[in-house]
Give the backbone structure.
Amino acid sequence: MLPPATRSTAGRVVHYDGTAGAAVSVEVAAEVPVNIVYATLPFAVMMATPADLEDFATGFSFTEGVVREPDEIRAIALTAQPLGILAEIDLAPAALRRHMARRRSLSGRTGCGLCGIESLEQLPAATPVRAPPRPVGPAAIRRALGALDAAQTLHHATHAVHAAAWCDRDGGLLLLREDVGRHNALDKLIGACLRAGLAPDAGFVVLTSRCSFEMVEKAAAYGAATVVAISAPTTLAIDRALALGISLVAVARHDAAIRFTPGAVAASPPVPA
């Protein structure tokens, strides 16, 4: 049996004025090593929340380029071990041959997303989206943000995880995944979208985390043409989004957001009530 996504832990409130604090029970987000293995060969160890791990294995395999289609994954076996979770992924023969031909050294990408590459020339580069995205309207963004908070059940319990959501073009929230790692949350979401057969041109991604370049790359690998982030982007995220033909909307609030465009930065106007 896999470990739960949260754990109740005892604590005591600390008052800075020195008065006695009450004993409390705190719900803490689980973070465990997940060893991803293809054909008995370890590929990566990711620190992740042990929830929706089939989605995570699918999305990670896809955004890492191990598989090109979700049906190239024949089976996913998850086994709890003393030191973490073993995720054994059975690949179709063609995908396994491609994977074995690749030379890749990678260890837990919860930070910069560049661990394992040997030179700047090895920076990942997703394929640009197939067609310029139709703009997602302000009303759809506001609707998505309105639904986002209530759907983050793990965040409400722990206040320690990121979320990635998939919304239709009207802003209706269809899927949401959470994890202690922002990259993991997006991989879980992409995996869930792939397994559900959702078309990447029929909606957009919403992120609660900082939008860095690898988040843009993962969204582009899936084929999403619009990424909305509650937090701010980095310069490289903006440059990548423009190069890949992705519409990047960030610092998204309920009354306004910033849409990053070539040569200028324009604020989306407040949405009329």
About this structure: The longest helix spans residues 182-196. The domain at 138-268 is CATH 3.40.140.10 (Cytidine Deaminase; domain 2). The helical segments are 53-63, 93-101, 138-151, 153-158, 182-196, 213-222, 235-244.
